[in-house]
Design a protein that fits this description.
Chitinase A, domain 3, alpha+beta, two-stranded antiparallel sheet, 329 residues, 4-stranded antiparallel β-sheet, 8 strands
Length: 329
Amino acid sequence: MDRLFRLGILFTFCFIGCSVQPEVPEDYILARVGSSIITRQDFIRRAEYTIRPAYCRQANYIHKKIVLNSLIAEKLTAMEFDKKSDAGMGGDHLETLLKGRREQAMRQIYFAEEFHSKANVSDSEIKPAYKLAGRKVNVEFLNLPDLEIASRIKDLVSKDVTLDSIHNNLWGGPAPSREITWFDREQDEVYQALFTNDIKKGQLLGPFKTEDNTYIMMMVKGWTDQVAITESEQNQRWDDVKERITDQKAKKSYIQWVEDLMSGKEMNLNPDVFNVYADRAADFFFKMDSAKQNALNQAIWNEPDILDQPTFITDRDDELNPNSILLEY
């Protein structure tokens, strides 16, 4: 009996010891996605023990990011499945989700085969970019709602008013700043303005229009150049620069192809649904824009009502059915 008791205790300790997951050191964690983690070993297994497609088989910076992004995407997809399961979604929703994933994968394969693989980059294109590829530029910036205010900011800077002072007056605190490298995914106008031999410290750049129809103005605070010293570092940087330029050229060709494909297409809005939808959206988005512009006008022009304020008349009796058709094409 005593022997059985001892064996039982020993078995219990072994079971507990095997069931407790060892804590992963922070140095071994590459990314956190919700409650899941991606470790160095996960990355190595995917990069070294899995057959990779032709567009990410190399050891350069871009291809490593593709491998890591694929792991992150898998974790995010798993989280979505868990959410749908918890919400009691049926198989039809899952099938629709998988169909969308497949179609997106088809577009990515088409891009890789028809554009990326056919983009030719010469050494004459790589050499000038290679000289700037190790540069990191420090900038201060302001995000502004329109060109009129951007012009006023330019006037203030020409009178030796700093962006810090302007930002402190408008929003409080110093102007936001960031470090931009040659490999960061910036829009072409920003990229061309920053990475040139003619750039100067204290230079004001912009305004640059963003995707959300605001305007960015930046002031160059300085930069550093990291030189590739060893032969392996030089070869790696050359490959990284070539891959980045190839990707840029491929995307420009792809965007042009999409524009040609969509030219002549029509989109018919359903007025019974769109008008109600537009009213609901306007109440939210334009109210935010009006508040921002009032604050800016008061700080810069000392005239809070300089801009016309939008007026919206919404029929609250109209209900917006979530299953209504908004547009057809």
